[in-house]
Amino acid sequence: MHNATHINNTMKKTSLKENFLMNILLTASSILFPLITFPYVSRILLPEGTGRVAFALSIISYFSMVASLGIPTYGIRACAQVRDDKEALTQTVQEIFLINLCMTVLVYVSYFSALVFVEQMRREKALFLLCGSTLFFNLIGMEWLYKGLEQYRYITIRSVGIKAVAVTLMLLLVRSQSDYLIYGVLTIIASVGSNVLNFINVRRFISLAPRRKYHLRQHLPPIFTFFALTVATTIYTNLDVAMLGFLTNDQQVGYYNAAVKIKDLLVSFVTALGAVLLPRISYYVSEGRMEEFAQLIRKAFDFIIFMAAPVAVYFLVMADRSILLASGPAYTGSILPMQIIMPTIFCIGLTNVIGMQMLVPTGREKLVVISTCAGAVTDVVLNLWFIPRYASVGAALGTLVAEIVVLLAQLWMIRRELPGLMAVVQLPKVAAAMVPATAVLVAVQTWVNGWMGMREGLGGQLGNLAALSATAAAFFGTYVVGLWVMRYKVVFGK
User: Fold this and answer.
1) Pick from 488, 444, 486: which is nearest to 468 by CA?
2) How far is Cα 482 from Cα 406, in angstroms, rounded to an integer?
3) Burial class (CB in 10 A: 0-12, 13-18, 19+), 493
């Protein structure tokens, strides 16, 4: 009972604000790792070497998805709901771990069979064997337990530390084109190597002594529902690139991919709060504390609107400079696709709150699957029409409409709860602050473009960075001041 009390007290001391900041740091480290290492290793290993590793990692990602089923999301909810009772937590964790273990063994059988029979994998057997260790590390990592207990400080410090070691070793050890295996090993260590520490540390929270009886069947329906959601989301998010590749050419895929990478980066920051809300909200629901649940959801809506609206507008207006800075002048064909998909940041932010913070904690994850499938079907139909006619621009249009469909479907699903939630959401204040901020953005952008056009010495990447810095300071500064004048407050709570 002492350990259970310790867990509960630890979580009460941890505010959502701290969890959010830790998750932002974790997200930033995951982005910075490839930004630091890839320019270095790509020049040493060349496209052939990095391509080998990328191909192997992409293949193992699908095996990992099957081995994990829907446990990465379901495990967070299940652990959060019993976090105050060490015995119940131990029982739950061991049952979920056993399901994960059985599925991992089955996937390993399939994986080793593929190594024998698939020529592309057999040629690089050593690399694929190394990548196969990811399945084991994911199994013992039990990241879902730590997230369910809101151990975000531990997760972040551990992950950033391991990534820093991996980056250092990569810069020291990858010296020639034949070192692609070392690059593969260090990439895996940076991604999942810290999971060893998770397994060692797990005794702090649960007992490892086997239980007398396990009830595995109760977990299977929600696990398979979350797995269906994972599969639908994976197909949904990778569909545009695949269809572009089949229906157009590599150049159009490159244009679209550059725009999507920036969008995904922005989405990861906008939705960072959602990742830390799931365990807390699941706990409130399990304890019947529905008023605190509703209060947290209202704050989440406020925060997403506060963050997503200006980010979407700013990068829509500054798409040209963003693309040129991130990808170079060869990617001017990415500018219009990026402008078209920027509003999806707002849609995805809201569906993240509705789906993962409202429907999932209250046991309505099947509705999330339905809404996601509706978006996927919309995406396929529109892509078949738009892509042959408009190429990468058509793929962006299909994505935008599909995300709107998902949002509308989820809004309809919570239509009875929506009036109470939206009654306190301060959308009008955000809209009012956006008007002068956008006007200032356009004015500063026009001035910067004219000023830089007269100064030939200030151009290229330096010019793009200067333009983005100046416009961002003007736009977001005006936006925040406008909200401050209207007394808009985003409070995370505890």
Assistant:
1) 444
2) 31
3) exposed
Phi-psi map region of 328: left, alpha, beta (phi>0 left; psi -120 to 50 alpha): left
Q: Long-range CB contacts (< 8 A, 24+ apart) of 9-17?
A: 10/149, 11/83, 11/149, 11/150, 12/494, 14/150, 14/152, 14/153, 15/492, 15/493, 15/494, 16/273, 16/276, 16/277, 16/280, 16/296, 16/492, 16/493, 16/494, 17/492, 17/494
Does residue 17 register a pLDDT over 60? yes
- For 113-159, what is each residue's pLDDT tens digit? 988 888 878 888 888 888 888 899 889 888 888 888 878 788 888 88
395-412: average pLDDT: 93
* Structure tokens belonging to residue 80: 């959060």
Amino acid at 137: F
Q: With the C-alpha atoms ordered 25, 27, 28, 29, is the resulting torsion angle positive or negative?
A: positive
Burial of 365 (0-12, 13-18, 19+ CB in 10 A): buried
Closest-CA residue to 6 (of 193, 153, 205, 278): 205
How far is C-alpha 276 from the geometric centre of its chain's CA atoms? 12
- Residue 36: half-sphere exposure toward Cβ, Cα within 13 Å: 17
Tell me which residue of 307, 227, 202 sits closest to 64, measured CA to CA: 227
Residue indicated by tokens 């990569």 = 170
Rg (the chain; Cα; Å)? 24
**Could you give phi then psi for residue 203, rounded to 5 degrees?**
-60, -20
DSSP code for 329 = G
Residue 444, token pair as written in the block:
């500063």
